[in-house]
Amino acid sequence: MKRYAIWPLAALVLLALPFVFDSGTSLTKMSLMCIMAVFALSYNMLLGQTGMLSFGHAVYYGLAGFMSIHALQILAGPSASMPLIVVPIVGAVTGLLFALIFGWVSTKRAGTAFAMISLGLGELVAASSLIMRSFFGGEEGVSADRSKLAAWLGLDFGAQIQVYYLIAAWTFFAVLAMFAITQTPFGRMANAVRENPERAEFIGYSTQMIRFISFCLSGTFAGIAGALAAINFEIMNALSVSGAQSGAVLLMTYIGGVGHFLGPILGAMLITALQISLSDYTGAWMLYFGLMFILVVMYLPGGLAGLIMAHEPVVRAGHLQRLIPAYLLAAVPAIICLSGAVAIVELAHHALVKAATEGPQMSVIGIEFSSKAPIPWLVAIGLFVTGLLLSRMTWPRVRDAWSEVHLLMKQS
Amino acid sequence: MLELILFSSLNGVLYGMLLFMMAGGLTLIFSMMGVLNFAHASFYMLGAYFGFEIAKHLGFWIGLFVAPLLVGLVGALIERFGLRQVHKHGHVAELLFTFGLAFVIEEVVQMIWGKLPVDYRVPEALDFVAFTMFGTTYPAYKVFMLSIAIGMFIALLWVLTKTRVGLIIQASLSHPHMVAMLGHNVPRIFMLVFGGGSVLAGLAGVIAGPALVTQPSMAALLGPILFVVVVLGGLGSLTGAFAASLLIGLVQTFAVAINVSLSDVFAFMPFNPQVGTVLGDLWSVTVAQVAPVIPYLLLILILIFRPTGLMGNRET
Amino acid sequence: MTATIDQPQQSPTAEKASSALQLRDVRKQFGQTEIIRGVDLEVQTGKRHALIGPNGAGKSTLFHLISGRIALSSGDIAVLGQSIVGKRPFEINRLGLSRSFQVTNIFPRLTVFENIRCSVLWQMGHRYAFWYGVSKLKAVTERCEQVMDQINLSQRKDTAAGVLTYAEQRALEIGLAIAADPKIIILDEPTAGMSRSETAYAVDLIRKVSEGKTLFMVEHDMSVVFGLADRISVLVYGQVIASDTPERIRGNQAVREAYLGQAEEHTA
Fold it and tell me: Is A410 at the interface with chain C, CB within 8 A?
């Protein structure tokens, strides 16, 4: 019963957030996080739950977004009948429609072949966005004015706060629905197909049908995300169907963690927050994302959620305090190493990119130095290497702490 | 007309050979290690940029020799310290690793050399006209590119059929697990194949750089086409990759030259879809505009109807 | 070309009704090599039928052909009167045939309970439903608990299948085959790798769950075979050299030479 409490709690948090973070940028940020959370969760229906890796998921998000923006255009004006709140249904239907068509083709194959088909389809749609200018609007994209639709309960949804609540409400119900689906017979069989597609066939299920249904449901929810994006930004352009957008949702979902339902939500929130704020601090933020992704793939395949949930049994058994000293010890060299790495990237970025326009001088916490001088470089590399070497010494402590905890848990 | 066909054929074969230089290595890597190396086109890009940088200081010819080797070194290091670590997490993780790698390489290249194309020029020794036909000139540099590509093909063939390592690699193409069980040092062979594939891709970049544009997006533009070639040709088949490379090269080159659209073909018909509608767009699009998309159509069709590819013997 | 020491001829319709599984001149070729070289075999409804033979005879291949994992090169296989040539494994399973695997083939990251639950969902009518939850389905949960009880894994029901011991995984393997209450159960070396006591338990279990059903199994452990089987077929080099009652098989000269000869001292 405690598990069910999380839903009303989440709803309360969503309702209360604008009172805590009430600036315009915060509202936009939170709206975007919600949209990306729905998008990433829809992607994980394929990857985490059914074991299908797709490189073309943006297709359903983007096409639904475009359909919705056209719907916004059509529904605007005095003859408008439908209020803004039902426009995401347009997105859902569009996503479903294209998923039915493309999914029937894609799910004939599995594994790498499926991934390649998704890549091909993604490139096809992205390329056709330049050809079909009437639907995709060419380079400028398509824009609309959401406040021109029929008002609902007196609201015209022009202000960001109103849009936030619309997006938050749709996000809540979409997430709830996606979670509910994981608890159904279909959802269970999707997991079975992920684990052992061959065996699933021998217990009476067509793996192709399971994959196809997963694909269609996933496309539907991606469509909802696309529609919400159209509503939020009031503009849609070819980027939303591009390979870059497909790559972005893959990144988010994987970093967040594909093995847990919350993972994609975490990843979406983190990456969106970083995307918005990091770009204020450094021009190399895309590089950081890429490096973060590679590190997660190499050392943390369960993502952030995997890391957090690995501690759940430890917390429940009350042994978390045994891990903390080791963590604190390992954190010091880790932070040194990280600072060194960031310093190297920033120095490189400054010397190579910014120096051309701003000159070689840069300043950090008030200290001025030249990004082309040897000393800052030596410091940066020194920090990185020292941190790395020290980390290798402290890491066994963490491992030992975990072994100790495992032993304790086995005995109890 | 004849001139169009002749030059398109020449260019198509050249493009196809360039594709094969990369697709060959990619097929070997994919068939042996099961890894679809997303970063393979990035190695091509690194070859072009390394070649450019070395050419700036030491001349084109030294760049031609050194740059591919540098790329090979990068590839071998990536295999040894990156891919090998990820291998234990499964095929999906390997795929994602190379995917992230492609992303990072593009960012680093952009950081070092900037977002705009660099001026990687054809060396003076090759900057003349090879021959003229029907009033159109054909540059000597393209002939040079073609001869390098053909030379590489012959060398690859020789290595694979006449050397011991080549024989092991051939065996691994169709039966990778068996080769490991026969006691060969598979990790070292993997590193060799990965590094070797990178050298070939780098070589393609060094020679293609001056002819095509050298810019940070060149990997992202070429990458997906490479996958199409590999899948089309079929797993475990270098000849398939060769055939697919030439096919795609010729099809794309010819398609780009055809400025015909449905509206031209059906101009005699009494009706015409309205400009500004979806149907209108489809009606007036020329084959040349659709050319970039044709490989993906082929990819999807092949994966549905013949997943082993044109000549492969294993399913993807 | 089989030497069947078989029952007297019956009329075709009576034959059809009493045979749960019928193989007619089944052949399977891999490249140039013919593994199954013309097998005629009949498993009668309600009987326990064992398939024995030396390693490499093609027993698992035959199982794969029957369950639809690989396609026949020629011949016919009829399950409950219906030809299964060209049918996918799930289609054959829906006819009422369920199998276990020689190499454990379970769902590693799902718990024991979830493993069993997945194998009953189709048969209990839940198909691809994504509009209602599965934990509220009392009949499903009850059936799962019943099966887990039978295979003695109730205490491990929330353990991930991948971390079970080998014997527990073999038990789960059997559980997956019997959970959906199939009409025909085919088991591929169910007691492989089990200790004496585990084997005895498994034999008891198999006997209980195959009560009133048709059982077809491959086994190497002769005590299991002679203890359980109503009929035994002997497969050697892709052909059935004998199909008879256990006593007559034991006394069969050709079978002795090909397979049982050395093991004579070890049979019960």
Answer: no
What is the distance between the alpha carbons of residues C107 and A196, in angstroms, rounded to a whole number?
6
Smallest CA–CA separation between B164 and chain A, in Å?
31
Q: How far apart are CA C164 and CA C156, in angstroms?
A: 8
Could you write out the three-class secondary structure of chain B?
A: CHHHHHHHHHHHHHHHHHHHHHHHHHHHHHHHHCCCCCCHHHHHHHHHHHHHHHHHHHCHHHHHHHHHHHHHHHHHHHHHHHHHHHHHHCHHHHHHHHHHHHHHHHHHHHHHHCCCCECCCCCHHHCCEEEEECCEEEEHHHHHHHHHHHHHHHHHHHHHHHCHHHHHHHHHHHCHHHHHHCCCCHHHHHHHHHHHHHHHHHHHHHHHHHHCCECCCHHHHHHHHHHHHHHHHCCCCHHHHHHHHHHHHHHHHHHHHCCCEHHHHCCCCCCCCCCCCHHHHHHHCEHHHHHHHHHHHHHHHHHHHCCCCCCCCCCC
Phi and psi (nearest 5°) for A362?
A: -140, 165
CA distance A210 to chain C (A): 7
**Domain span(s) for CATH 3.40.50.300 in chain C:** 20-96+182-268
Residue-level pLDDT, tens digit, chain A, 412 residues: 567 888 999 999 999 998 888 888 889 999 999 999 999 999 999 999 999 999 999 999 999 999 999 999 888 866 667 888 889 999 999 999 999 999 998 998 888 888 888 998 999 999 888 888 888 988 889 999 888 887 788 788 888 889 999 999 999 999 999 999 999 999 999 999 999 999 999 999 999 999 999 999 999 999 999 999 999 999 999 999 998 899 999 999 999 999 999 999 999 999 999 888 887 778 788 899 899 999 999 999 899 999 999 998 888 888 888 888 889 888 999 999 998 998 888 888 888 877 777 777 777 776 777 777 888 888 889 999 999 999 888 888 899 888 988 888 887 6
What is this structure's pTM?
Answer: 0.90
| Residues of each domain in chain A carrying CATH 1.10.3470 | 6-301
Contacts of C135 in chain A (CB under 8 A): 183
Closest CA to A221 of A49, A76, A75: A49
Half-sphere exposure of A193 (CA within 13 A, CB side): 31
CB contact at 8 A, C48 and C224? no
ipTM of the complex: 0.87
Considering only CB atoms, A188 lies closest to which of C105, C114, C127, namely C114
**Which residues, numbered 217 to 246 in chain A, qualify as contacts with chain C under a Cβ-Cβ cut-off of 8 Å?**
217
DSSP A8-60: HHHHHHHHHHHHHS-SHHHHHHHHHHHHHHHHHHHHHIIIIIH----S-THHH
- pLDDT, tens digit (0-9, with 9 covering 90-100), for B156-202: 888 888 888 788 877 776 676 777 777 777 778 888 889 989 999 99
**Type of residue at A350:** H
Provide Rg for chain C, Cα atoms.
19
Interchain CB contact of A78 with C (< 8 Å): no
CATH 3.40.50.300 for domain C20-96+182-268: yes
The vertex-A59 CA angle with A56 and A63, nearest 5°, equals 180
Two structure tokens written together for B143 = 């002939």
Decide if A370 touches C, using CB distance below 8 A: no
Across the interface, whether the CB atoms of A181 and C99 are under 8 A apart is answered no
Q: Do B281 and A124 touch (CB under 8 A)?
A: no
Find where tokens 């269609």 sit. Answer: A216
Domain residue ranges of chain B, discontinuous segments joined by +: 2-223
Q: Report whether CATH 1.10.3470 matches the domain A6-301.
A: yes
Terminal CA-CA length for chain A:
25
Show the tokens assigned to C117: 């639950």
Query: Can you say how many angstroms the Cα of residue B159 is from the centroid of all Cα atoms in its chain?
Result: 20
